[in-house]
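Lab notebook, design round three. We kept the backbone fixed and only want residue identities now. Task for the bench partner: fill in a sequence for the structure below.
Input structure tokens:
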């Protein structure tokens, strides 16, 4: 008893009182009731105020519509340039990204990219690397490599895969500049299936409109596993490079495969852009499994959407429509990830209960993981 501190002694005394006879009636103390602990999960009311970052958007315009909606809904944005023929020319994408970055440097972040034009010829990597260094000077935080590597670009008649050693000097430069490589390699597994066997309508629509990328129609092209293997070889060969696998690393159809990828590559994260319906497809079949995946890998998953605003949608009505769509996508995803509320998801024709992820997990996947993956602070 000698070693009892003052604080503990207080406890001992009250214990003595309690044991020493009938305790006096406690005075009613409604005002002193302890404050209820904050709920373990967020609600729809918390959507706007929680700090959030959409790690995968394409602001291909100079106008303010996208930024206005991001401000309204409390989002920061990672706008990504891509060497995609459906998008404006790379120079125009870069100019649009810089305009957005300068308009709100605290809210807009930029991922630049590079062209494969001239690949295999002497000086290609030097030229690309000089451009990337200049972009880093101008504020770029990441570099995107797209599925044209592996699916379209050829040298000497052969497809160029990501693990081609001639791409390595560019990866080394990205790393030495302190940037992150965002890789969209391959496609969802649905891409290798006939349209009527695909699991989601969004994939069905995309591949119907883009038959050149629908690999089921091109059996002479590399298989799904060939694409994944080339990407994995590349990530394994650059263990010091921060890598973000866009679109759940093209492993969207099975959370176990995403888990295995993240286990194998500690320098890798994945973003969820344009693949939420694939996750929902799995969670309507086994909600606990998907929920446990999010909790276990809460440090490695980045929230993202693939929301895109192109200059051909620059009329006032189209901008207003885009804002409604962005708000709709963002609030639907929040409902699914942060709350237990159920909602109908038309592209998988199912009612999908929310995952109700703990607040701490939401804070990570919506902001902290991106801040770390892209060295934003
Ligand atoms: Zn994208």
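Proposed sequence:
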């Amino acid at each position: 008893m000698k070693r009892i501190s003052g604080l503990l002694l207080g406890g001992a005394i009250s214990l003595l009182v309690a044991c020493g006879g009938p305790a006096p009636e406690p005075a009613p103390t409604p005002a002193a009731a302890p404050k209820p602990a904050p709920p373990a999960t967020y609600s729809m009311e918390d959507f706007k105020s929680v700090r959030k970052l959409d790690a995968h958007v394409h602001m291909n315009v100079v106008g303010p519509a996208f930024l206005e909606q991001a401000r309204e809904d409390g989002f920061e944005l990672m706008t990504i340039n891509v060497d995609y023929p459906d998008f404006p020319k790379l120079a125009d994408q870069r100019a649009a990204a810089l305009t957005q970055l300068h308009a709100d440097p605290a809210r807009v972040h930029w991922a630049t990219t590079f062209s494969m034009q001239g690949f295999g010829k002497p000086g290609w990597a030097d030229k690309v690397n000089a451009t990337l260094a200049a972009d880093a000077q101008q504020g770029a935080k990441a570099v995107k490599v797209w599925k044209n590597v592996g699916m379209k670009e050829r040298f000497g008649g052969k497809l160029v895969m990501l693990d081609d050693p001639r791409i390595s000097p560019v990866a080394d430069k990205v790393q030495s500049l302190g940037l992150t490589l965002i890789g969209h390699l391959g496609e969802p597994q649905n891409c290798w299936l006939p349209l009527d066997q695909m699991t989601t309508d969004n994939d069905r629509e995309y591949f119907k409109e883009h038959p050149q990328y629908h690999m089921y129609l091109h059996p002479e092209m590399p298989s799904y596993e060939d694409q994944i293997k080339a990407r994995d070889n590349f990530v394994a060969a650059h263990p010091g490079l921060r890598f973000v696998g866009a679109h759940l690393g093209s492993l969207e159809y099975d959370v176990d495969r995403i888990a295995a990828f993240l286990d194998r590559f500690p320098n890798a994260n994945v973003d969820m852009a344009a693949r939420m319906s694939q996750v929902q497809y799995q969670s309507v079949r086994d909600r606990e499994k998907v929920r446990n995946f999010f909790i276990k890998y809460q440090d490695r998953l980045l929230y993202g959407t693939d929301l895109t605003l192109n200059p051909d949608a620059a009329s006032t009505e189209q901008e207003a429509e885009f804002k409604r769509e962005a708000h709709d996508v963002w609030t639907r995803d929040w409902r699914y990830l942060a709350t237990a509320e159920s909602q109908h998801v038309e592209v998988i024709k199912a009612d999908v209960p929310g995952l109700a992820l703990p607040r701490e997990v939401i804070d990570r996947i919506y902001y902290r993981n991106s801040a770390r993956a892209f060295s934003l602070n």
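Keep this in mind before ordering anything: Confidence is low (pLDDT under 50) at residues 1-22.
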